[in-house]
Amino acid sequence: MHRRIIAPGALAAASLLLAIPASAASYTPGAPGIGDPYYPDYGNGGYDVSHYDLRLQYQPKTDELQGTATILARTTQDLSSFDLDFLLDVSEVRVNGAKAAFTTSGQHELVVTPKTPLDKGTPITVTVRYSGVPSTKSAYGFNTWHRTPDGAVAADEPEAAWWWFPSNDHPSDKATYDVSVAVPDGTQVISNGTLQSTASKLGWTRYSWRQNKPQATYLATLAIGRFDITTSTSDGGVPVINAYSKDLGDNDGAARASVERTGELVDWLSGYFGPYPFSTAGGYVPNTTTGYALETQSRVYYSPKQFAKGANTSVVVHELAHQWYGDDVSLKGWKDIWLNEGFATYAQWLWSEHEGEGTTQQLADYVYASHPADDAFWTVEPGDPGADHQFDGAVYDRGALAIQALRKEVGDDAFFRILKGWPQEHAYGNASVADFQRYAEQVSGKPLAALFDTWLFRPSKPAVPAARAAALVKADATAAAVAQPKSWRKIEAAHGGHGN
Predict the structure, then answer these.
(1) Do 358 and 474 reside in the same domain of the chain?
(2) Where is the Peptidase M1 membrane alanine aminopeptidase domain positioned along the sequence (predicted)?
């Protein structure tokens, strides 16, 4: 037997080689965007978030926000660095307890370089300490942080998180949340989910909220101010928490007359969409100047302007319908927006019929007849409208018209099984328009490619034969020949753009 003699230098070199992971060369930066063609720089690659823990302090008088965000995630590739979407000023970042280097890039990217590279599949804890004045920050020429006379509100679409917490800001990366905010005594904090606790100390009160179901980042909301808070429980057992700014003025009565019906409307929608998917329901009406409502998960945001002309339960129906279509089942990519807005609008059509203010068929007839073939309305394809037209009226109205066409094609029995089954099929997950088509074909047993193509993916008005097939009996009538349903203006009031 001959021993192989290894020289000391060679031994050291071999030891060094063993110390270097074989995969070292594979460590690369995570992508600065998640890959959505509508918003290439939104979201980030290389990791998947499971939970956000946000511990904040806010001073309404100065709009100063301080915070520590702790993000639980898992890497999806061998990472040398990764991005977070964020705008405020960062003082420290730690990854798995060790200080990490960080810098900013582009208009809203925080680039984090861990002390040591991260293997694929590694659980990571990212802690970010930060501060700033959100109202002074902007990206791409806009700001989604809404100041109010007594505080501020974060509620916007498709982005709002950058102004108050670092995140992987795309609907495809959903997570649970703990949001704990300290504010001066006398000021209150509203957020998603359930209020876990309040505690006062040295002139400050801390409110701790928990969202225990997966939630997209744009659906996370924060409202700080002075509110009248009401609580109740629906007949179906859903706890309801609503809040109203104390300075809503003339809009106060109409806002309450609408939003206080949340429990009733959640139960009514459950009859169509299945069990309510979250631990609480409700909404809040702060004193803002915006003109839209937004389906912030389990705690809907309503602008006072929604109630300037009186009570409007239709807008409440629209936003609550999103709790199933948009919040429970979220879109895979922003091009799938029809799955949110088309179905929330159709819920309003169902409510209109329930209230005797126009049947779904009458509303479909009106939409079809009131837009001539050369109307730009028909150039927007609800199934993939493009980023510039994502919240156009056609996505809502033509989108709901497509759903009525689907109903006539598959029949009521299959249609209502589809409506109720879809939120359970993809509960707390993400899905695309293509996924929905496959599901509708599976439930109905009918091929639906031609129907989806005609109503969702062609930049032209569906021809009269297709309209007649959808039971649009007045398909070739002019707008003047089709009466406007009584509910129409209330339905349209819900479609104010989510824009910035």
Answers:
(1) yes
(2) 309-455
Looking at residue 404, the DSSP 8-state letter turns out to be H
Same domain, yes or no: 181 and 47? yes
Residue 164 to residue 415: CA distance in whole angstroms? 41
Q: How far is residue 375's CA from residue 368's CA, in Å, rounded to a whole number?
A: 11
| Amino acid symbol at 129 | R
Residue that is last in its domain, among 195, 225, 255: 225
**Residue that terminates a domain, selected from 225, 247, 274:** 225
Nearest Cα to 355, choosing from 486, 213, 459?
Answer: 486
pTM of the complete model: 0.93
Radius of gyration of the chain (CA): 25
pLDDT digits (tens, 9 = 90+) for 153-206: 999 999 999 999 999 999 999 999 999 999 999 999 999 999 999 999 999 999
CATH number at residue 471: 1.10.390.10
Residues in the chain, how many? 500
**Dist. CA 142–CA 445, nearest whole Å:** 47
The total domain count for the chain is 2
Residue 467 has which token pair?
């309209």
Judgement on whether residues 337 and 221 belong to the same structural domain of the protein: no
* Contacts of 253 by beta carbon, 8 Å cutoff, 6+ apart: none
Question: For residue 457, is it within any domain?
Answer: yes
Render pLDDT for 250-268 as a digit per residue (tens, 0 to 9): 999 999 999 999 999 999 9
Give CA–CA dist 164/145, Å, rounded.
8
Strands 151-154 and 89-95, how do they pair? unpaired
In a domain, 434, yes or no: yes
CB 266 within 8 A of CB 122: no
- Domain extent for 476: 331-496
Contact 122, 75 (CB under 8 A): yes
